[in-house]
Write a structure and sequence with these properties.
The structure holds 2 protein chains of 2 kinds. Chain A is an all-alpha fold. Chain A has one domain. Chain A has 21 helices and 4 strands. In chain A, a hairpin with a 2-residue loop joins strand 3 and strand 4. The longest helix of chain A has about 35 residues. Chain B is mainly α. Chain B is about 80% helix and about 0% strand. Chain B is built from 3 helices and no strands. In chain B, helix 1 runs antiparallel to helix 2. Classes of the chains: A mainly alpha, B mainly alpha. The interface between A and B is large, with 51 and 42 residues.
């Protein structure tokens, strides 16, 4: 604490960050430092040693992940608030931070070779990637709308760069501009929502900080108990949830997803699909069950309808596509529907659990399973030579299993996990969500989820069929694909995780 | 008296916000669309200042600085993307963005 400020303003004593506060965000500080290190290396290292940059980034990410595994508040059951209530940590937020670290690590593995083949800067990509990761990690811990907005926007601006990263590709730029407009629109809606909530609740006596989640929750609880929630507040809450649904890609805010995912460089697509979706999903969860929990009666039906329509729109849309990246983008929408369904269950029946996991843990496990499936599939896509990154028709996958059994296996395990084939980790994750829906007696949503799974099997397997079963045309032999050792080890680890992760999830209880 | 003034501010902010939203949805020139996005942020900022003033809390006024900073960063990246797209395609009409489809 700085004594000078404490002498000037006594409030500083209460609000000033303590040294213990900084320790709680050590992982974020480390990741941000790592991102600067990437730039520094790009400036100082001779050209021959530039290959070290992604290696440093990955080593650093692994160290940070280990550090937060060892030092995180895993053992503390209660929430830990820091920075005078700006941040709040608990077991699920630590879990999501691990999802972001893992997702950034796997994206770096994809990006290194991908960018080098396209003659694009590797160091800059890693720099922005790590900044976005740190921002996402802060976002899920925020307990105050200022930190929330800042972290969200930092991540969003970084993602615009990552989507439009291939400056020589018209597709990448087009995707970047489309993401820019969609993201800017959602940020504006979100900000207007925050402003309305801030203004409407700021006039309530007893509320000193109407941007703080805890105080918003208390004020809303008192107001809804008295049946006097102002329309301004309701409009604000609706705008905020709409803005977050945009980031998550939930119906009716999913229109941007196919184009942006298709045009973005494939490593970015994988990062968008996992980390960005995880951020949207988790913020929706903490908002709906945190500050806006007193409005559950009004919010739950909206989310239930949203979940049903998201599941149907994603799966039906994916059925009509033939481009693999587009199919995976729209199937990602249906995964967002699954997460929405889990959040709805938490609102309908507070404290609902599946096999002993509460909703926050189920969402984290679902996201982890989704990361494994997505990156296995993305590995197979990236290793395939393509003239244009945004054109990846199913036909291009033909004979993949023959050209590289390992990549064929990666695609098989990845798609199997995404589709939820037992005993993959994706199956267990879907099972947990379905169990939540049964416990909360949300039969309509359960029905939509089951129909969604049935439809998804069809399009997932039409991708897999091209790679595995069909021989190449005219029996023409395609050249086998060579893979570096790192990729081979990575595919093995991910495939093992997709096979055994689910059993660990069940055994953990 | 003060409440009337707050309502006036909010009405103006709401009008600007809807104007921006309409522009984003209707206009075809990407630069105009981007300006409309900024207009929406400005409308939110105006409402923020009005609430901050009439609720007598400083938090909103402080948030304004953050919003302006964020908007500046967004504009820097956004204009860079739009300029790069113009160099590549020679147009910034959203009708011309048809590279991505199934």
């Amino acid at each position: 604490m700085i004594p000078f400020f404490a002498a000037v303003d006594p409030a500083f004593k209460l609000l000033a960050p303590r040294s213990a506060d900084w320790l709680t965000i050590l992982p974020e500080i480390a990741v941000a430092g790592l991102s600067l290190l990437c730039l520094l290396q790009a400036m100082l290292l001779p050209k021959a040693l530039r290959a070290l940059i992604p290696v440093t980034a990955r080593t650093g990410l692994i160290l940070v992940a280990l550090m937060s595994l060892v030092a995180g508040p895993w053992t503390q059951a209660a929430d830990v608030e820091s920075f005078a209530g700006l941040l709040r940590q608990n077991l699920p937020t630590d879990g999501v931070r691990a999802v972001f670290l893992l997702s950034a690590l796997l994206t770096s593995f994809l990006a290194e070779r991908f960018l080098r083949e396209r003659d694009a800067a590797v160091a800059d990509y890693h720099h922005v990637l790590l900044v976005v990761t740190a921002a996402f990690m802060l976002l899920v811990q925020s307990n105050h709308f200022v930190t929330f907005f800042l972290a969200l926007e930092t991540a969003a601006v970084g993602l615009y760069v990552l989507v439009g990263y291939l400056r020589r590709s018209a597709a990448s730029l087009e995707a970047g501009v489309k993401y820019l407009v969609a993201g800017g629109l959602s940020s504006a809606l979100l900000l207007m929502g925050i402003v309305l909530v801030y203004g409407a609740l700021g006039a309530v006596p007893g509320v000193t900080d109407s941007l703080n989640f805890t105080q918003i929750g208390k004020a809303l609880a008192a107001q809804s108990a008295a049946g006097a929630v102002s329309p301004l507040t309701l409009a604000g809450v609706a705008l905020i949830l709409g803005g977050v649904a945009f980031k998550l890609g939930a119906f009716p805010f999913h229109a941007w997803i196919p184009d942006v995912y298709q045009g973005a460089p494939t490593p970015t697509t994988a990062f968008l699909g996992t980390a960005s979706k995880a951020a949207g999903a988790f913020t929706l969860l903490i908002l709906a069950t945190g500050p806006f929990a007193p409005l559950a009666v009004k919010v739950a039906p909206l989310l239930a309808v949203g979940a049903v329509l998201t599941l149907l729109a994603g799966n039906l849309g994916a059925l009509a596509t033939t481009d693999v990246k587009r199919t995976l983008a729209l199937s990602g929408v249906s995964h967002a529907g699954f997460i929405l369904a889990a959040v709805t269950a938490a609102l309908v029946l507070p404290g609902v659990d599946a096999f002993g996991y509460d909703v926050e843990q189920v969402v984290v496990l679902y996201l982890l399973a989704y990361v494994v499936g997505t990156f296995l599939t993305a590995q197979a896509l990236v290793a395939l030579p393509a003239l244009e990154d945004h054109r990846r028709p199913q036909l291009a996958l033909r004979g993949l299993l023959r050209r590289s059994p390992l990549l064929g296996g990666a695609l098989g395990f990845g798609i199997g996990s995404l589709a939820g084939i037992p005993p993959s980790v994706g199956f267990i994750a879907k099972l947990l969500v379905l169990a939540l829906l049964v416990a909360a007696k949300l039969w309509w949503v359960l029905g939509a989820a089951l129909i969604g799974v049935a439809i998804s099997i069809h399009y997932y397997f039409s991708i897999l069929r091209e790679a595995v079963v069909r021989p190449t045309e005219d029996d023409e032999e395609l050249a086998p694909l060579e893979l570096p050792l790192g990729t081979r080890v990575l595919v093995f680890v991910l495939a093992a995780a997709s096979l055994l992760g689910g059993l660990f999830m069940l055994a953990g209880r | 008296m003060e409440n009337t003034a707050l309502a006036h501010h909010l009405l103006l902010a709401g009008l600007l916000f809807v104007l921006g939203l309409t522009g984003v949805l209707v206009r075809r020139n990407l630069l105009v669309v981007y300006m409309c996005l900024e207009l929406m942020l400005a409308a939110a900022t105006l409402a923020l200042v009005a609430f901050s003033r009439f609720n007598r809390t400083m938090d909103g006024a402080v948030l304004v600085f953050f919003v302006i900073t964020v908007a500046a960063a967004e504009v820097a990246v956004g204009l860079a993307l739009i300029v790069a797209l113009f160099r590549k395609r020679g147009t910034v009409q959203s009708d011309a963005l048809t590279t991505l489809r199934d």
